[in-house]
Amino acid sequence: MERIAIISDIHGNIPALQAVLEDIEERQISRIFCIGDLIGKGPNSDLAVDMIRNSCEFVIQGNWDKYITEPSDENPTVTWHRNKLGIDRLEYLRELPFSIEFYVSGRFTRLVHASPRSLFERIQPGDSFDSRLSLFDHSDLCQHQVQADIFGYGDIHNAYIQNFQNKTLFNVGSVGNPLEITQASYAILEGQFDQRESRPYSIQLVRVPYNIELSIEQAIEANMPSLEAYILELRTAEYRGKKSS
């Protein structure tokens, strides 16, 4: 049996990323896949890109990773994060692939950032059955034009696992900007990698405490834009765009 750590949505939060990488190392997991949003929101996008490049076997693009490379976007927050990256890191983010696809224990597995159709389509665990079921579909953006048996994604910063119609759907949550509890989140996929014969497999969600106040201190020292919203999310795990009822 082989174990793969799947991380997502680091968002420039280095104390959270360090805590997760240390936990992965303590578990003696050697393979790490990153499914996007290395940058933005937090103050250290440049360091996050460098650490992910050094630590992860496969990395795919997230929505922040895509639009940070589009100079037509004049949003001042996006511009601030873009200016920290430099030409080499921006080119790296621009060239990241859309999906990671492989067999594990006889189950065709697809990992993307948000949905098989788009980096910007957002599907929550409480959305309609048909919406969630559609995540197992494919599009021209995917490597293989077949339905997935296991589908994993990030983007919503909300970790969960659901099983239905002989398929498994999971979200890894967020390393650097979790929005359910104030701990970093990632997933461990265990099984026979690149094996098409049906064998046992498992998916585990892991929560990792980290030094939130250090992350906030780094954001303050960097004079980061959208600072108050970022601090609120880290301390409360409440999404800045949530509207009161």
Automatic annotation (TrEMBL):
Database matches in SUPFAM superfamilies: Metallo-dependent phosphatases
A Pfam cross-reference name: Metallophos_2
Organismal lineage: Bacteria, Bacillati, Bacillota, Bacilli, Bacillales
PANTHER family linked: BLL5683 PROTEIN, METALLOPHOSPHOESTERASE
InterPro entries: Ap4A_hydrolase, Calcineurin-like_PHP_lpxH, Metallo-depent_PP-like, Pesterase_MJ0912
Gene source species: Paenibacillus dokdonensis
Family: Belongs to the metallophosphoesterase superfamily. YfcE family.
Protein name as it appears in the record: Metallophosphoesterase family protein
Residues annotated as domain Calcineurin-like phosphoesterase: 3-190
